[in-house]
Specification:
Layout (H helix, E strand, L loop, with lengths): L2 H9 L3 H11 L11 H7 L2 H10 L4 H13 L3 H14 L5 H7 L3 H4 L2 H8 L7 H15 L3 H7 L11 H9 L10 H9 L1 H11 L8 H8 L3 H15 L9 H5 L4 H13 L5 H15 L3 H10 L6 H12 L2 E6 L2 E5 L5 H11 L12 H14 L4 H20 L10 H9 L2 H8 L11 H11 L13 H9 L2 H4 L3 H21 L9 H15 L6 H8 L6 H13 L7 H16 L10 H8 L10 H16 L2 E4 L4 E4 L3 H9 L1 H9 L1
Antiparallel strand pairs: 1-2, 3-4
Length: 662
């Protein structure tokens, strides 16, 4: 009755109308199109045929029609669509499989038809299906067909695809998920081949695929050692950049790590080949466990010279390779057990330094390792090492030796910082008498600001840190009382040093000029109001460098301070006016003018009326639009308009937060 209407509907371009009807009817039936549908169907265009076949339901009368289409239609694509519909709508019937077997190779290789029949429910037909797919794979050269069929069968019936699976895994730069069924197939049927392929992958690229890493990680200890023995010797003959040395190192046991360490320490760096070998061995050792490295270092006690001990301890100081993700190494800081740290301390602390050595490199590395093991237990040794470095720095300062010879002070300082309040209490009384090189000063400052969400104020305003500190109450109650008392006393010492400079102006060529502003910014960073009078005097000086002024004021604002001092407000407006009037070249990385403008938002309205603030923003926007940036690299001039200035003028304080989080 509705044959003309249904035929017209199939010809429409509006898929929504078709789908709505099909959903209501539960799938179309060929009976609805009249008795002569088979003859009319042959004359339809290909698109209309596909549309009908796609929407046919599982009504019984559709089966014979679909069989006829799948076997006899002149268009291979239409036959393939008929096979697909038979497979999905009549899964209990072998009609789709029969039609597929009787079709041409073009129809069999049709993606939809192929995938619909390989998900076969009749296991008696599986051998014939395997045989036909193998023939198609050979004829078409697409061996992946066998893998596609194998994925639809139980694992114990996939042996026919084993060789193809091994070839697939062996392909270079072929990335698979660690749980890919191709890997599982080879692991079940030929685990030795999978191991060989995985080992070969270690020698092909610097970062192996995830499935290789997962497979090697799952090996038992004896299997790992055996794999290391096979791969390590071969890897040394391959270019250092082409092997995953870190992954090879994770296969090594304690005995192998000791042997690698011995070889690494004896490698000469006289030629490029030797340097490549040294880098390869370093990466192998970098993946070794902390326990194995420590045992290897202690096994050579009494046999190594000073330089070799330092290099060995450096391996323990550096992070350990853990795992890879998206080609990026994930590293973990090594932490010794206290007993192992004590053993290293006993073995190497008193190692005589060679004549002419300018830095206690072994003691520096040991202090860092001790601080990671137990900073309380080894506090005395860490303090001793720090004072040795402070004494060495003081000697260098007196003879005006270049700072480049100060090699390991950072390691001593990092170790001492872990001592926290207890270490600060020991260092504070020594600040004026034993710190000519400013090492103790740096340690005290880091301990004082360590609990804060951020310990430096580079360029932009740290609005996010400011809000966090205010929200969590840091500004109001600070930290624990003992640490705050130490911070206050430290601030007093800085203030007294600033006071000692007096009010006289000093030439920028003098060391005192730079020392004054270094002390000012250091005091501004401390979470305390102690020393504010001296800090205020520095901020309102006319010779304060603009970048140091911005840095110090940013630090104060980030700690929750508001700018309500008349003299400081005047200094800020003076600095801003100077920057607006400046004709100096503009560095695109310089944010000082941005910060000078943004700092005005932290002045109360009583001291900076809104109309003055608006005028200041307009000045900034005008200045930003007039910048001419000279590119020395391309020898040409181009004009840039600072979009941030326009945003700032339009959105005000909201934009301050945006640029702070940028």
């Amino acid at each position: 009755m509705f044959a003309p209407e249904l035929t017209a509907l199939l010809e429409t371009k509006d898929r929504l109308d078709v789908l709505a009807l099909i959903n209501d009817a539960g799938g179309l039936s060929v009976r609805s199109f009249g008795d002569d549908i088979a003859n009319r169907f042959r004359a339809w265009p290909t698109e209309q045929k596909h549309k009908l076949l796609q929407e046919l339901g599982s009504q019984r009368e559709n089966l014979s029609f679909l069989k006829d289409v799948a076997c006899c239609d002149a268009d291979p694509g239409v036959r393939a669509r008929g096979i697909t519909t038979l497979a999905w709508e009549f899964p209990a019937s072998d009609a789709a499989l029969d039609a597929w077997f009787s079709s041409s190779d073009d129809t069999k290789l049709n993606r939809e038809a192929f995938h619909s029949v390989i998900d076969v429910g009749n296991h008696e037909r599986v051998p014939a299906l395997i045989s036909e797919v193998r023939r198609l794979a050979e004829a078409s050269g697409d061996k992946n067909l066998l893998l596609q069929l194998a994925r639809e069968l139980p694992m114990n019936e996939r042996e026919f695809a084993l060789d193809v699976a091994k070839e697939e895994l062996a392909k270079p730069d072929h990335f698979l998920h660690p749980r890919d069924e191709t890997i599982q197939l080879v692991a079940l049927l030929d685990p030795a081949a999978l191991q060989a392929i995985a080992e070969e992958k270690l020698l092909e690229r610097r970062t192996v695929q995830d499935w290789v890493a997962s497979h090697l990680e799952a090996l038992q200890k004896p299997e790992r050692s055996a794999a290391f023995a096979r791969v390590f010797a071969r890897a040394k003959g391959v270019g250092e950049e082409k092997v995953d040395a870190a992954r090879i190192g994770k296969l090594a046991g304690s005995a192998e790590i000791r042997a690698v360490l011995d070889e690494w320490l004896e490698v000469s760096l006289s030629d490029q080949e030797s340097r490549n070998l040294e880098r390869f061995l370093s990466r192998v050792l970098g993946a070794a466990s902390t326990e194995d490295l420590c045992a290897a270092a202690l096994a050579r006690k009494g046999e190594l010279n000073y330089s070799q001990v330092r290099r060995t301890l450096e391996l323990l100081v550096q992070p350990q390779f853990v795992e890879r993700s998206a080609d990026h190494p994930d590293q973990r800081r090594r932490t010794l057990q206290p007993e192992a740290a004590q053993a290293l301390l006993d073995a190497y602390w008193d190692l005589p330094e060679p004549e002419g050595t300018q830095a206690a490199g072994v003691k520096a590395a040991l202090c860092l390792l001790l601080s990671r093991a137990d900073s309380v237990r080894f506090a005395d040794k860490i303090f001793e090492g720090l004072m040795l470095e402070a004494e060495r720095r003081a000697a260098l300062v007196k003879v005006r030796r270049p700072a480049s010879e100060i090699w390991y002070g950072d390691e001593f300082a990092r170790a001492a910082m872990t001592g926290g309040t207890a270490m600060a209490k020991r260092l504070l009384p020594l600040l004026d008498t034993h710190d000519d090189g400013n090492l103790l000063f740096d340690v005290l400052q880091q301990i004082a600001i360590l609990p804060w969400p951020r310990n430096s104020f580079h360029a932009r305003l740290d609005i996010a840190a400011r809000q966090q500190r205010i929200t969590e109450g840091f500004v109001a109650r600070q930290r624990d009382q003992e640490l705050q008392e130490i911070t206050d006393e430290f601030a007093l010492k800085i203030a007294s040093r600033l006071e000692a400079f007096g009010d006289a102006a000093v030439s920028p060529r003098e060391n005192q000029f730079h020392r004054r502003w270094w002390l000012m910014t250091s005091l501004a960073r401390l979470p305390t109001r102690v020393g504010w009078p001296e800090l205020r005097k520095c901020l309102i000086r006319t010779d304060v460098p603009a970048d140091r002024f911005v840095y110090a004021l940013n630090a104060l604002v980030s700690q929750g301070e508001n700018i309500d001092d008349d003299a400081v407000v005047a200094a800020l407006q003076y600095q801003f006016a100077e920057r607006i009037a400046s004709t100096a070249g503009f560095n695109q990385q310089d944010t000082s003018m941005e910060d000078l403008a943004a700092l005005h938002f932290f002045i109360s309205e009583a001291k900076l009326p809104p109309h003055v603030l608006d005028a200041m923003v307009d000045q900034w926007a005008g200045k930003a639009q007039s910048y001419v940036v000279i590119s020395s690299q391309h020898n040409h001039v181009h004009v840039t308009i600072d979009a941030k200035a326009v945003d700032f003028a339009a959105h005000g304080v909201d934009f301050v937060v945006q640029i702070a989080e940028y």
